[in-house]
Request: fold
Amino acid sequence: MCVGVPAKVIEKNEFTALVDVLGTKMEVGILFVPDVEIGEYVIVHAGQGMSIIDQTFAQASIEEWEKMARADII
Amino acid sequence: MRTLFEPKDSAVARELAQKVIKLADRCKEKTGVTPAFMEVCGSHTMALARSGIKLILQDHVRLLSGPGCPVCVTDQKQIDAMIEVAEAQNRIVCTFGDMMRVPGSKRSLLSAKTEGRDVRIVYSPLDAVRIAQENPDREVVFLGVGFETTVPVLAAALQLAELKQVENFSMWATTKLVQPVLRTLLSVKKVKIHGFLLPGHVSIVLGEQAYQFLADEFHMPGVITGFETVEMLSGIYKLLQMVLNDQPAILNNYKSVVRPDGNPIAQKIMNEFFTPCDETWRGMGMIPQSGLDIRDQYSHLNAKKKFNVTVGEPKKTLCRCGDMICGLATPDECILFGKACTPIHPVGPCMVSDEGSCSAYYAYMRKEG
Ligand code: SF4
Reply:
């Protein structure tokens, strides 16, 4: 029930957006993420976009984890 | 720019797992005990089991399931009441799929459906409002179970029903809040852990600040974490570092999704339609102000006020779901696990829900034979 999935916005209307989730297209509400733009990813929960994925932070996190994986632990 | 995970991340995950093991062993050398962390969210329970993290780390880090599976924490009397709602003729009961097979004292929603009651699974609570619009001569009740992630969506359904004046729609809300239950676990249940893997999705709504009391009042570290293997491993890594350095803090390891102040739009609609109330939790009893109920001005949308539903005391079973959600037992410690209780014949909600600790353990960690 709680699992949110990242979905790519491919069409935006006033209160809803058409999103692509791993190749499946579906309509979700954007009441909580009204500023989402086409091409951005949102986390969807129970039919509503809950958060826009911030690409800068996503990239920074990936770099941080790669560094962590290479770190020496004495 | 890479923003989502790719296959090459599995190499990073393997490396990270080795680093986590080393760090955990150093922690044990220093403190004399195996570090124990609680994953608060049911989705983490399932993701940690499915990814193999629980198995790989089991001799180095104790990962305990917490009170984050919404169906599992729901008190049996509430479960019985929600099933009873479906008994009346001329009623359509809509629910998230997780609720269908949860055993009630007499039967489940699924068996009620099999015996002719109109019980429907919906993906979104807003779909239930649409069903009410399409069936104006029948009462439609949505069973609203969930934490702070789900409550704004429940509020959106109430708002839609209010706007469209859908008089035959109502909601049976049994919602739970994360902060009061974490406080209860630490101060009343005295659960023995060294830190929390904090729920990524609840935090989308609440933000980072919601957990600061853990570090300030309980000297307990917490890391807000996503659900990919690398995200969870790095979250555990950060917890171990804080335990080793004895520097508890609340860290956001899911910054791409969780903002410091959460989602203010979701918070606003949640507060408009819901108000704090006392809630009874499975295995923990009543925790003051640990849930949200529909505000009085919208009581015409509150199924608990609209319908007279009474249930007796729940049937007693040997199910230990109450202990599971408090981190006081693991599924293999329940004598029914894998014998009288299986996913085909579940005895408790932890074996039914996609986020339940027993169902995760059964699918990914059960020893054969
Ligand atoms: S194994 Fe079944 S009976 Fe035992 S605690 Fe889990 S759900 Fe309850």
